[in-house]
Specification:
Layout (H helix, E strand, L loop, with lengths): L9 H12 L5 H20 L8 E6 L2 E6 L6 H8 L10 H6 L16 E9 L6 E7 L11 E4 L8 E8 L7 H12 L6 E3 L2 E2 L13 E3 L3 E4 L3 E10 L7 E9 L2 E3 L1 E6 L5 E5 L2 E5 L9 E6 L13 H22 L9 H10 L9 E3 L6 E3 L6 E2 L2 E6 L4 H7 L4 E5 L4 H13 L11 E4 L7 H18 L4 E8 L5 E6 L2 E7 L6 H9 L4 H17 L8 H17 L1 H4 L3 H11 L5 H15 E5 L3 E3 L1 H4 L23 E3 L8 E3 L12 E4 L2 H11 L3 E8 L2 E8 L4 E9 L8 E6 L4 E3 L3 E5 L4 H4 L5 E12 L6
Parallel strand pairs: 1-7, 15-17, 21-22, 24-26, 28-30, 29-36
Antiparallel strand pairs: 1-2, 2-6, 3-4, 3-6, 4-5, 7-8, 9-11, 10-11, 11-12, 12-13, 12-14, 14-17, 15-16, 18-19, 20-21, 23-24, 25-26, 27-38, 30-31, 31-37, 32-33, 32-35, 33-34, 34-38, 36-37
Helix pairs in contact: 1-16, 2-5, 7-9, 10-11, 10-12, 13-18, 15-16
Length: 771
């Protein structure tokens, strides 16, 4: 026989669920305004004469009211949908045809995160009765009738709803705070939205057209999956800042309502559904295309902190096509020569047909030739290319019967130049670099043998390169390092007379404990850029294999990786009578604990704890011709077990790209995706107020991992930005550290108190739908 009934403190449960589902206590603003907007869409769908829709938000002390003149509700709608969590009056064909934004039926819960009383006044379209309903949070009960519904004595003059929220005295809601939070969600609505009588909607996200621009005009795109119209605007100068507007979208013969407006000048890609803001979308773009994706098919998560994985994948496909379109448009104009993004795109996608306007130097002069104009013979002179760096050698090879082309210092540009010349069958005029002597082990000092042995181990273990030789030699042209291919084998030669490696000999003799990590740094910064093209991990096939591995692992972590989805599923089971409220509380609490990250002053350590104390700051003179933002491998310190969550240094270290602070990734991400960071990758970061998002892209550009920090405490007023930073990932035995840009160093360099934030992450495969 049962002795006691199941009981819960419903107000505490609501506090827990609200904090788990919603990203901020201010979410009640977004959820109430979204309900008001949906109501207007539904009325507009029913009433073709509905001409003056409006939403009015009023903040007066601790009272918040949201008024709309939309479809409204009667007593049955209030009871069945508004006050029943998980039930929505918008899950029907008519509502979907109207283009409603919300369908989860949990929006009213957002109010109970900060309110003490909730009241609703509503009049359903086509009826004469105004209904009043409400409840105090303290009176909420699962067993007793606690919510009143009655006919109002004061009848509304128009259809619609007014929600009146009494805000808890523990929470201060100001107009400025409401505006900063709400503006991204409502600014593009065509419906007027007023905040204390100030209009905060009806902005435009259209293309920005200036006098000094190149306009593609409206063109049409079609492949096996997609069909749409597009227009590209390019700034005819530096930077190019491409823009791309996509309209009339058809996907697999199904019309997608909405449009997309992308701008390289924007810092965030933001998703809208029927013009109402949803969430940022983490998708990588070679041309840094951000802006607005306004599609009716976008599906948000219950708390609107992101769009669904399926929606992200769909947007990723469109952004990839947009990159293709922008690349083709830039390539038509001389501006292509100065577009580093286009150069990265051409190299990554092997689209050397787009390289016509990229220039190549003639000798070591200021004269250049466009690649499209390069021929085997120009003005009666035979054209060669020269890969060496010696001006003296180049001068010795020149005469009046030839033209000698040389490669640029920029990594991507040089790669493109060489590939195009090979395609055009331009012959190489051999550098007269000579290997005068290769030393055997008996002729070398012990320190030199140690350098060769340890370098070989690092290359084999860290980079999986085995088909190579390593030797000391006498090399002409005062070169310190020289690579040559011999019957498919890479021969890496160190000049014995060079002083470039004297510091390694010193470390070997005086501080052997640091010897291996110094070798690792030398290989990463000086050798890797020279042999990177021979690594399978930098190819599309390498990315495909890595992605397949993640998919295999994902099956093992399906339940554990659930952030909000499992709480939502449990809620559905509870409403169906399959789960108890305690089940929901346990899942919510467990998720919140495992996703929460904290940093305090004791969590901050020194970079030297991982990398050791350098004998002296090193300037990487051999690496000046390498693009600092090219895909780079991590700094490996797998012998170090680090307890710190933040590493800092005050030293200027060129091997660390002058980064002063490194932040540890979450332990879950380390476990799930450590293999990704072992591969060469690029690093991009965007930040603004309460959010920081990192994008790490595989060297093949076919796989991107995003890592999002939702901060409890804002970065600061007007602290926002986006940039590509040199990859300086540090991997230890138990942690992965990523670089923090200077703008955020003071924020993460915790000296007192505790810094808390939630993290989210996932991988996105950059698929190719081109026919």
């Amino acid at each position: 026989m049962s002795d006691i009934p199941f009981n819960v403190q419903i107000d505490h449960v609501l506090d827990l669920l609200c904090s788990q589902i919603y990203d901020s206590p201010l979410s009640l603003l977004r959820e109430n305004v979204q309900n008001a907007y949906d109501a207007i869409l539904q009325r507009r769908h029913k009433d073709s004469n509905f001409k003056n829709p409006e939403i009015r938000i009023t903040i007066d002390g601790h009272t918040l009211s949201i008024y709309d003149n939309g479809i409204g509700m009667d007593d049955k709608g209030l009871k069945s949908h508004y006050w029943t969590a998980g039930s929505s009056g918008k899950n029907n064909p008519e509502a979907r045809a109207a283009g409603v934004v919300g369908t989860f039926g949990v929006g009213a819960m957002a109010n109970f995160g900060v309110c003490t009383e909730l009241k609703v006044e509503s009049r359903l379209y086509g009826t004469d009765i105004t209904w009043t309903s409400g409840v105090k949070k303290a009176d909420l009960s699962l067993t007793n009738n606690c919510i009143y519904i009655s006919e109002s004595k004061e009848q509304r003059s128009d259809y619609g709803t007014t929600v009146i929220v009494t805000i808890s005295t523990d929470f201060i809601l100001t107009k400025e705070k409401a505006l900063n939070y709400l503006k991204p969600y409502v600014c593009y609505l065509s419906v007027p939205v007023y905040l204390n009588d100030d209009l905060i909607s009806k902005d435009s996200y259209d293309l920005t057209i200036s006098a000094n621009c190149v306009d593609s005009n409206v063109l049409h795109y079609k492949n096996t999956s997609f069909e749409f119209d597009y227009r590209v605007i390019l700034n005819n100068g530096v930077p190019i800042l491409p823009q791309c507007k996509i309209t009339n979208i058809i996907y697999n013969h199904y019309k997608i309502e909405g449009d997309i407006c992308l701008k390289a000048s924007d810092t965030v890609l933001f998703g809208l559904r029927n013009s109402f803001g949803l969430a940022p979308i983490a998708v990588n773009s070679t041309f840094h295309l951000n802006g607005i994706v306004n599609l009716l098919t976008l599906v948000p998560t219950a708390g609107r902190e992101a769009v669904s994985r399926e929606s992200t994948s769909f947007v990723s496909k469109i952004i990839r096509i947009a990159d293709d379109i922008v690349a083709n448009e830039i390539a038509k104009h001389p501006m292509a020569n100065n577009s580093r993004e286009l150069h990265a795109y051409i190299r990554s996608n092997r689209r050397y047909d787009l390289a016509g306007f990229i220039e190549i130097p003639v000798g070591k002069t200021e004269v250049s030739i466009k690649l499209k104009d390069v021929q085997k013979v120009i003005d009666g002179k035979t054209v060669y290319y020269f890969k060496g760096n010696s001006k003296d050698a180049l001068e010795a090879l020149k005469d009046n019967s030839n033209i000698i082309l040389t490669f640029s210092n920029d990594y991507n540009r040089a790669h493109i130049q060489q590939q195009v010349l090979i395609q055009k069958s331009i012959p190489e005029i051999k550098d007269d670099v000579r290997i005068k002597k290769i030393y055997n082990d008996l002729e070398l000092e012990s320190a030199e043998i140690a350098i060769l042995m340890r370098t070989r181990m690092v290359i084999e273990d860290d980079y999986s390169l085995s088909n190579f030789k390593l030797s000391y030699a006498d090399i002409s042209h005062n070169l310190s390092i020289y690579l040559q291919e011999e019957d498919g084998i890479i021969h890496i030669l160190f000049s014995r007379s060079s002083t470039e490696f004297d510091y390694l000999k010193t470390v070997y003799k005086d501080n052997y404990a640091l010897f291996e990590q110094f070798i690792k740094d030398m290989v990463r910064t000086r050798l890797y850029p020279r042999f990177s093209n021979f690594l399978p991990s930098a190819t599309k096939e390498g990315a495909d294999a890595l992605f397949a591995y993640f998919q295999k692992k994902r099956e093992l972590f399906t339940i554990e990786n659930g952030d909000l989805g499992d709480v939502e599923d449990m809620m559905s089971d509870y409403l169906a009578g399959k789960r108890s409220m305690q089940d929901i509380i346990n899942v919510a609490r467990a998720n919140k604990q495992k996703q929460k990250q904290e940093v305090n002053a004791r969590s901050v350590g020194s970079v030297s704890d991982v990398l050791g104390e350098h004998i002296e700051p090193k300037v990487n003179s051999l690496n000046n011709d390498i693009d600092p933002c090219m895909p780079m491998p991590p700094i490996m310190r797998l012998d170090k077990n680090i307890d710190f969550k933040v590493l800092r240094t005050d030293a200027i270290n060129h091997d660390l790209n002058n980064i002063k602070l490194f932040l540890s990734l979450s332990d879950k991400l380390y476990r799930d995706y450590a293999e990704f960071f072992y591969q060469p990758h690029t690093t991009n970061v965007i930040w603004s107020m309460h959010r920081v998002i990192f994008f790490f892209t595989h060297a093949s550009n076919n796989l991107t991992l995003y890592y999002q920090l939702d901060l409890d405490k804002p970065l600061g007023d007007n602290v926002k930005g986006a940039k590509t930073i040199p990859t300086t990932t540090i991997i230890t035995k138990n942690k992965i550290f990523i670089p923090i840009v200077d703008d955020m160093v003071d924020y993460f360099n915790v000296k007192q108190g505790v810094l808390k934030f939630m993290v989210k992450y996932d991988s996105v495969r950059n698929t190719d739908d081109r026919s």
